[in-house]
Design a protein that fits this description.
It is a single chain. The protein is an alpha/beta fold and 710 residues long. Among the domains are: 43-136, OB fold (Dihydrolipoamide Acetyltransferase, E2P) (Beta Barrel), CATH 2.40.50; 247-434, Rossmann fold, CATH 3.40.50.300; 444-601, Rossmann fold. Helix content is 41%, strand content 18%. It contains 27 helices and 21 strands. Strands 11-12-10-13-14-9-15 form a 7-stranded parallel sheet, with helices on both faces. Strand 20 (547-552), helix 20 (560-567) and strand 21 form a beta-alpha-beta unit. Helix 8 (209-235) crosses helix 25 and helix 8 (209-235) crosses helix 26 (658-669). The structure holds adenosine-5'-diphosphate (ADP) and magnesium ion. Adenosine-5'-diphosphate (ADP) binds next to helix 11.
Length: 710
C-alpha cells in the first residue's frame, strides 16, 4: 500500500487527511497553496493611539471577562495596556474562552477597531497569548484558505517547511524574459512571505507580477494538458465516415428552407472531421434558435450512409422526445430506421428498441443520456450527438464511449460559450460556431414589468391567445425546494385558470411522468392548449413556432443564461414576439444588473460574456456536475493576454520541448488532475479529486473569514 512519502517532512495521518481536503498531497501542492490575504502583525499600536476603522494589533492584559446576555449572548473582555482600555467582544465562543481570559494574562489582539457604546472595541479579533517580550513577526503574515480543524498556524508551518527546498523553475529564463514574467521561486516566496515594503493593494488585487506568473503557469498547464489530450485523441484511430452525399443531400433537398451560411460552414467542418480516421470531438455552439438540430441530423446521416449507427442524446426526456418527434418523420422518409428509448416506455417496448439497436436493425436512436447508460449496446455506433453537453458529467459521457469502438462525438451547446472559456476549458475540442440566425425571424421584444401590473399582463395574454396565438407562462424558480417549486406551479396554474376562463390552459413541470409531460407538450404543439404554464423545464429546446408571447414570473430570481434560453422559446415564427419579465421590487443589485443585461441585449454570446463576468466560470460550466477543475489564480476576463500567450507557448512546448511540457504539467497536474479526463478524453495520468476552490469563491472567502467556504 505505502508508496514513497508524498511530503519531504513528517506529516501525521490526521494532518495529511485535512491537507488532502484542500487538494494538497505533496510538497509542490503546499508551495502552490497561496494566501487569501496577509495581515500585518509586525507592529503593536498603543491603545490610546487606536482610531476607529483602523486595523491594528495591541498588546494588552485582561482586566476582566464575563458572559453578557443583553442584547444577546456574548463574551465581553476588557483589556488594558499602560495607556488605555479596550473592549473585546466575541459573539461565538466556547466556555473554554472564558477560562482563557483570566485577569492579568497578556494577549495580542488584532482586528478592526470600532467605536463602541462604551468606547473603542474589537469584535472577534484574532488573538494569541503573548507577553511584552514575545518577538514580533518581521514579515506580513499570510492567511491561507483552510478547512475545518486545520489552523492557520499548522498550515503556515507546513508551507514554510515545504518552502525550505529550492523551487526549480519549469520555464527557461529567456522565455520568461520574453514573456515579461518573473521567476517562479521569486514569485512564490513573495506571495507566501511578502516583504514589509510590499504594496499590499497590488498583491490583494492580484495584479502584482508574482500573481501574473502563477496565473500564467496555471493557464499554461491547462493548455498543455488539453493540447496533450487532443494529441492523444488524434493519435487514436476510428473508422472514417467519408461524405457520400446520398442521405445528406436528400435531406437538405427535402428541407423547406436552405441552410444559412453559418450552418453550411459548421456542417462542412463536421463532415470533414467525420471523414478522418480519428474520433471527432467537436462542439457545435450557436445561439438559441440558430438551427443546430439540422446540422446534427446531417452528422447522423453521414454515419448512416456509411453503414453505421448514430445516437442523439439529450439531457431531459422532453428534449429527447422533441428531437425524436421532429427528426424521425423526415428521416424515416429517407429510409432511416429510428428507435426511441424512453423512461416512460413499457419494459417490453424498451427491450425491443434496444434489441433493434444491438442487432443493427435501427440506424438512429434517440433518448436521454441516462437511458443510454442504462443497458444495451450499439452494433456499430458511428456518431453520438450529445445535446447540451455542458450539462453532462464527464463520467456519463465516458460510459457511452465504452459501448463498442470509439464513435465520433458532436456536442451541442445552446448556451453560447464566451471566447475565453472556449479557449481555456474547451481547448481540447474543435469548435464550430453558428453565428447567424435563420432569416425572417422577428426579434423578440423584451418588456420589464413590475409584478404590481400583473393584471395588464393577464389582459395581454388573453388578447394574444384569442387572436389565435399561444403563450408560455413560466413559474418562478424556487431553488431551495423542488416541492415548493411544484406547489408554486400548481398554484399558478389554478389561479390562472380562474383568472382566464376563456383560455385553454395546460401545465407542465418536472415531476410529471414522461408520458404526461409528452401529452401536454403534444397538446400545446397541436394548439389544443392556448397557454402553457410551465416550470423551467421548457428552458431548453422546446420549439412551438405559434407561441409568440412568454411571461416569466419572478424573473429577478433567474440567471442570465436561463432567461436567455427561456426567451429563445419565442420568436420562432413570423409573429412579432414578446417576452414579459415580471419582477418583484425591491431588486437586489445583482438582479438589477441581470435584468438590465437581458433587457438590453439579445446576442447570446454577449450575454454569456456578461454572465461569465457576473458569475465566474465555475457556475457557468456547472462545475459540480461536470467535474471540471476551476482556475484558481487566473481570471479569464482579466488575463486574456496571458491566456493567449499560454496557448501559444503550449504549442511551442509540445512541438519542440516535450521535456519542459512534462516538467510543467508534473508540477501543476497535482492540483489540476481532471483536465486529463475532460470532454470524454480518457486520460493516462491518474486523476485526483477536484479542486477545493477557484478564484471567485476564493475572493468571497477573502472577504469573510479565513476558513474556506465551499
Ligand atoms: P437550436 O439551435 O436552438 O437548437 P433549432 O435547431 O431548434 O435551433 O432550430 C430552430 C428553428 O429554426 C427550427 O424550427 C428549425 O426548423 C428552424 N430552422 C433551422 N435552420 C433554418 C434555416 N436555415 N432557415 C429557416 N429555418 C431554419
Ligand atoms: Mg436545440
Amino acid at each position: 500500500m505505502k508508496t514513497a512519502p508524498p511530503f519531504s517532512f513528517p506529516v501525521s495521518p490526521a494532518l495529511a487527511t485535512k491537507l488532502a481536503k484542500l487538494g494538497i498531497v505533496r510538497d509542490a501542492d503546499l508551495v502552490l497553496h497561496l494566501p487569501l490575504r496577509w495581515e500585518d502583525d509586525t507592529r503593536i499600536t498603543p491603545i490610546r493611539d487606536l482610531l476607529p476603522g483602523q486595523a491594528a494589533q495591541v498588546q494588552a492584559t485582561v482586566r476582566e471577562a464575563h458572559v453578557a446576555y443583553r442584547p444577546r449572548r456574548m463574551l465581553t473582555v476588557t483589556v488594558e495596556d499602560s495607556g488605555g482600555v479596550l473592549g473585546i467582544r466575541f459573539l461565538n465562543f466556547y466556555p473554554s474562552h472564558l477560562k482563557l481570559f483570566q485577569p492579568g494574562v497578556s494577549f495580542r489582539f488584532s482586528g478592526e477597531v470600532r467605536g463602541g457604546f462604551l468606547g473603542l472595541e474589537m469584535v472577534h479579533p484574532r488573538f494569541a497569548r503573548a507577553d511584552d517580550d514575545t518577538p514580533l513577526p518581521t514579515q506580513l503574515t499570510p492567511v491561507y484558505p483552510t478547512t475545518a480543524g486545520l489552523g492557520q498556524a499548522t498550515l503556515r508551518k507546513a508551507v514554510e517547511r515545504a518552502l525550505t527546498a529550492p523551487i526549480v523553475d519549469t520555464l527557461p529564463a529567456d522565455w520568461l524574459a520574453e514573456l515579461g514574467l518573473p521567476e517562479l521561486e521569486t514569485s512564490l516566496r513573495l506571495l507566501h512571505q511578502p516583504p514589509l515594503d510590499c504594496a499590499l493593494g497590488e498583491l490583494e488585487s492580484r495584479r502584482h507580477p508574482a500573481w501574473q506568473r502563477l496565473a500564467f503557469d496555471e493557464l499554461l498547464a491547462q493548455q498543455l494538458s488539453l493540447a496533450t489530450a487532443r494529441r492523444q485523441r488524434t493519435s487514436r484511430s476510428t473508422r472514417p465516415l467519408p461524405a457520400r452525399r446520398q442521405l445528406t443531400a436528400a435531406f437538405t433537398h427535402a428541407l423547406p428552407f436552405s441552410l444559412t451560411a453559418a450552418q453550411t460552414r459548421a456542417w462542412r467542418e463536421i463532415s470533414a472531421d467525420l471523414a478522418q480516421p480519428h474520433p471527432m470531438r467537436r462542439l457545435l455552439q450557436g445561439d438559441v434558435g440558430s438551427g443546430k438540430t439540422v446540422v446534427a441530423a446531417l452528422a447522423c446521416l453521414q454515419a448512416i450512409e456509411n453503414g453505421f449507427q448514430a445516437a442523439v442524446m439529450a439531457p431531459t426526456e422532453i428534449l429527447a422526445e422533441q428531437h425524436y418527434r421532429k427528426l424521425a418523420p423526415p428521416l424515416s422518409a429517407l429510409g432511416v430506421r429510428c428507435a426511441w428509448i424512453s423512461g416512460s416506455q413499457k419494459k417490453s417496448e424498451r427491450a425491443a428498441a434496444w434489441q433493434a439497436i444491438a442487432a443493427g436493425d435501427a440506424d438512429l436512436a434517440f433518448g436521454t443520456h441516462a437511458l443510454f447508460q442504462e443497458a444495451g449496446s450499439f452494433q456499430r455506433l458511428g456518431v453520438a450527438v450529445v445535446d447540451e453537453q455542458h450539462r453532462f458529467g464527464v463520467g456519463q459521457r465516458l460510459a457511452l464511449m465504452q459501448k463498442g469502438a470509439e464513435p465520433h462525438q458532436l456536442m451541442m451547446s445552446a448556451t453560447p460559450i464566451p471566447r475565453t472559456l472556449a479557449m481555456s476549458f474547451f481547448a481540447d475540442l474543435d469548435v464550430s460556431t453558428i453565428d447567424e440566425l435563420p432569416p425572417g425571424r422577428s426579434p423578440v421584444v423584451t418588456k420589464l414589468v413590475s409584478a404590481a401590473r400583473r393584471d395588464d399582463v393577464l389582459a395581454r395574454v388573453t388578447d394574444a391567445c384569442l387572436a389565435g396565438g399561444q403563450a408560455y407562462w413560466v413559474c418562478p424558480l424556487i431553488e431551495e425546494s423542488e416541492k415548493l417549486q411544484l406547489q408554486t406551479a400548481q398554484d399558478t396554474y389554478t389561479t390562472l385558470a380562474e383568472q382566464l376562463p376563456d383560455l385553454r390552459i395546460g401545465l407542465v413541470h418536472g415531476r410529471l411522468k414522461p408520458d404526461e409531460k409528452q401529452a401536454v407538450m403534444a397538446a400545446f404543439l397541436a394548439h389544443e392548449v392556448d397557454l402553457l404554464v410551465a416550470t423551467t423545464v421548457i428552458e431548453v429546446g422546446v420549439d412551438v413556432p405559434n407561441a409568440a408571447l412568454m411571461v416569466i414570473e419572478h424573473a429577478e430570481r433567474m440567471g442570465l443564461a436561463q432567461l436567455h434560453q427561456l426567451r429563445g422559446r419565442v420568436g420562432r415564427g413570423s409573429r412579432e414576439s414578446v417576452c414579459v419579465l415580471l419582477y418583484e421590487s425591491p431588486l437586489s443589485e445583482l438582479a438589477r444588473v441581470r435584468l438590465k443585461v437581458i433587457f438590453e441585449l439579445t446576442d447570446g454570446f454577449e450575454i454569456a460574456r456578461r454572465d461569465l463576468l457576473l458569475r465566474g466560470p465555475g457556475e457557468l460550466l456547472g462545475h459540480r456536475q461536470s467535474g471540471l477543475p476551476m482556475l484558481r489564480f487566473a481570471d479569464l476576463e482579466r488575463d486574456v493576454a496571458l491566456l493567449e500567450a499560454a496557448r501559444d507557448l503550449a504549442q511551442r512546448c509540445l512541438a519542440g520541448h516535450p521535456d519542459i511540457a512534462a516538467r510543467h504539467m508534473e508540477r501543476w497536474i497535482g492540483i489540476m488532475p481532471t483536465f486529463h479526463m475532460m470532454n470524454g478524453s480518457p486520460c493516462s495520468i491518474p486523476g485526483r479529486a477536484g479542486l477545493p476552490t477557484h478564484s471567485r469563491s476564493r475572493a468571497r472567502c477573502a472577504a469573510g473569514s479565513a476558513t474556506m467556504v465551499r
